[in-house]
Amino acid sequence: MPAGESVTDSLESRIRMRIRAIPGAAVGVAYANLSRGQSLYINADTSFHAASTMKVPVMIEIFRRVDAGEIALDQGILLVNQFGSIVDGSPYSLDPAEDSDSAMYHQAGTRVTLRELLERMIVRSSNLATNAVIAIAGGEQVTATMRNLGARAIQVRRGVEDGKAYALGLNNTTTARDLAIIMATVEEGKAASPASCAAMREILLRQEFNDEIPAGVPKGVKVAHKTGQITATLHDAAIIYPHNGDSYVLVVLTGGISDEKVARSLIADISRVVWLYDAAMQGARSRADVDGK
User: Fold this and answer.
1) Is 7 helix (H, G, I), strand (E, B) or coil?
2) What is the rounded CA–CA span in Å between residue 181 and residue 217?
């Protein structure tokens, strides 16, 4: 570490150096250790297309409705592959070939529990399940709930593949800071009831796409997270649980990177740098605790 540079400055410089290695990349980073109060933000207020990270706010809204007794996780929802555009209500359908959970389409025309829809929306990032759930939650209400939780910029406007809305620039957007705030409320039991937050963390822990933030931490470390991906855009928003330390939140949003492998490697590398920093800080605190006894 250069003379006069703090440990946090060193973390930031390492991350910025890694980002600069990819010309034209737009990257937002938010890191927060919730117990120690340590944080780092890089381009954290830059707005990105939210891609599938918006599914976490949608899940939160549903669990809050469950807490209020308005809906039940075990109620059956008729699953149909037809939705109305937010522009004019005109119908559109999803393409199974463009969905990471194409198997979900075999259940179209049947009743599926809200519990299963939430699971598939997060764990397999099912677009069909997502649109069914958003039809219940409502984009405006999801956004309003995020404001109440402290996220000031995120916009959840629509379901997936609403082509008319996309053409008008009516997209779901977020910042790294807002996603970090949202993930922190889930971890701290503030996004909904403590029991619902625990249930949401368990769903996030079952995430099946683990090539970004989880790839930067040691094998066996638990990571509750949600990825997001569209053309030249790749994100991950996570809560990381070190074996012998405090949990921390890490969000990495990327845009302008056409090579998916490059974007994945970047997010994993940032995750690795943050892991090493957080572990060093935990070790320093543990030594200080021992010395103070």
Assistant:
1) helix
2) 21
Q: Tell me the residue type at 139.
A: G
Give CATH 3.40.710.10 domain extents, the chain: 1-46+176-293, 47-174
The CATH code that applies to domain 1-46+176-293 is 3.40.710.10
Average pLDDT over residues 19-39: 96
Residue with the two structure tokens 């297309």: 49
Give pLDDT tens digits for 193-243: 999 999 999 999 999 999 999 999 999 999 999 999 999 999 999 999 999
DSSP structural state of residue 105: G
pLDDT digit string (tens) for 238-265? 999 999 889 999 999 999 999 999 999 9
Bridge partners (DSSP) of residue 113 are 76
- For the chain, how big is the Rg over CA atoms in Å? 19
Decide: 235 and 229 in contact? Cβ < 8 Å. yes
Helix/strand/coil (H, E, C) string of 115-158? HHHHHHHHHCCCHHHHHHHHHHHCHHHHHHHHHHCCCCCCECCC
Q: Helix 194-205 to helix 176-187 angle, to the nearest 10 degrees?
A: 120
Q: What is the SS3 assignment for 90?
A: coil
Look up the CATH architecture of domain 47-174.
3-Layer(aba) Sandwich (3.40)
Buried b / exposed e over 215-251, threshold 16 CB at 10 Å, is: bbbeeeebbbbbbbbeebbbbbbbbbbbeebbbbbbb
Q: What is the DSSP letter of 110?
A: S
Residue 9 is predicted with a pLDDT of: 79
